[in-house]
Amino acid sequence: MSAKQDMRIIADALATNDASHIERIAESCYYGRGRERSLKAALELWTRAAELGNADAMYYLGVCRYYGDGAPRDAEDAFALWERAAALGHGGARASIENLRPKEKEDAP
Q1: Less Cβ crowding at N or C end of the chain, within 10 Å?
Q2: For the whole prediction, is pTM greater than 0.90?
Q3: Nearest to 26 by CA among 78, 67, 70
């Protein structure tokens, strides 16, 4: 797939306002499945999908924010995203909160 075709697919996904579709395209950008890996595109797509209420997108954005993967590290923002996703029933977000919040408290000065 050419870069131009890929940009068109991403633009078309964003235009649909279909949060699940946008989230799946974001994952493929993040992992480089069927396209060149692009953290920038993945974060843009996950942000839009999260705005549309997609729990998977909120979870992945939280992971990126917690670890500083493609975005500035911000544990507070990560936990806020995970809490929103957990409220929507996302198990991975719940696990991240349970496993990482105690670690953050231990590491605090």
Answers
A1: C
A2: no
A3: 70
